[in-house]
Amino acid sequence: MLSGPAKLAATTSLVDKLTQDLASVNLLPHQRDAALEELKIYGRDPHNADPIFTREGIEMLTRHAFDSPSSTTSRNALRCLCNALLLKKECRQIFVDLGYEAKVCNKLRNDSRDDEFLASRIVFLTTYDTDTKLEQLIDKYHLADSMIKNLERHAKHHSDDGRSTTDPMQETALTETLKLLFNITHHCKQKASSFTQAVPHIVTILCKGSFQVDKPLDQPIGPLVNSLLNLDLGAKEVQSSLYPPAKPTALSDRLISLLDQSRARYQDEELDSTVTPLLGVIQGVHGHASQDVQISMRQKLLPTEADRKEVLGQSGSLPSWLLNNSTNAVAPKLREMISDVLFDLSDKNASRFVENVGYGFASGFLYNKNISIPQNASEAFSNDTGSSSRPVNPVTGQFLDLEKYSDAPEMTDAEKEREAEKLFVLFQRLQANGIISVENPLRTAVEEGRFEELPDDYKEDVD
């Protein structure tokens, strides 16, 4: 492999040769394709490959990519172009300025996974650092229609039980289409409704597709989930796909299964970018589901009777993992999303939320959202949880009859008084700062005559 001045000379020669070929055809098809293949290799590293990344170099590649009658030549040029746009962001605006929007969108109409991948990658890259007009691509050049058609092809492929061994390009093209769909619906929210018809195909692939991945949200599974984030899951025309009559929980079960698998496979530093979108989709699916589907989801995501045998968050269950990560300082997006989801699963009712997760996990979220906190434990736990009528510790969420007590010797009366005074002062400060609005239990005890203040000359009996 050439490097340094020799690589620069070879790159310059190839760009000149391919540029002249556009003015007057002087290369045979195999010579042209070989030149583009060699140029692609040099273009993987921008050092000493400057001619590729100039306006003239990008225009040459664009013309071979979109004006050539040969699909082989076109794809070879598209690969070079993809590398250039990936490595040098200024090349993206050059491409946009050349005005090939119609032709790149037309490429997506081809029933070819290679063209789907390459054209999707180019449009995807131009969603960064350019002034490309996404609305025009959708309205004038039918980008959404072409992408939905490609997703339909992928869905058909994954619905075919007798399909042959998957072509690696199939998954690569699918991933690129999904990434492009997410970016367009993120950067051009006003046109997100143009992609609503993609929902049934995405759900089909997500629920029926079989992919060999190292981690549960590796491509294309992660992009499948992410692509649903900005789409209208409440649209009437997609309800039967999200909640199929034969098995309404098919999608919710699949999403929760991915969440359950993910909790053991990702480090704290990865959670915000990988698992947070999955929880966002779970929230959306729950929000538009029937009562039966919602009940099914709550049974899997909210603490169960088994979880309440210990302080909530101590068991190895998925609900415990969610509760623990609702306070994860390393993953701020995830912790906020978890609390949002758990609050939604509690019908957005503060008392039910406290009842489901305990004061310990609920109070901070409710305070930050400026939602009134139930004034006392009995108010929050006045309704049965639906799973048990056994008394529960309102702070920890554990069944009272299963609480473990310390073996430390009982405090003396003097120690009890000192601790009571500390608690009294603490409650006064919390009330003064507006953090809680509960009645100070020590004041209540004093008023009811259940609190005895010891005299100053009190001496404890010692055996």
TrEMBL record:
Domain of life: Eukaryota
Taxonomic path: Eukaryota, Fungi, Dikarya, Ascomycota, Pezizomycotina
BP terms from Gene Ontology: G protein-coupled receptor signaling pathway
PANTHER family attached to this UniProt entry: SYNEMBRYN
Alphabetized Pfam families for the sequence: Ric8
Family: Belongs to the synembryn family.
Gene3D superfamilies: Leucine-rich Repeat Variant (1.25.10.10)
GO CC term (a single one): cytoplasm
InterPro entries in the cross-refs: ARM-like (IPR011989), ARM-type_fold (IPR016024), Gua_nucleotide_exch_fac_Ric8 (IPR019318)
Name this polypeptide is given: Guanine nucleotide exchange factor synembryn
GO molecular function: G-protein alpha-subunit binding; guanyl-nucleotide exchange factor activity
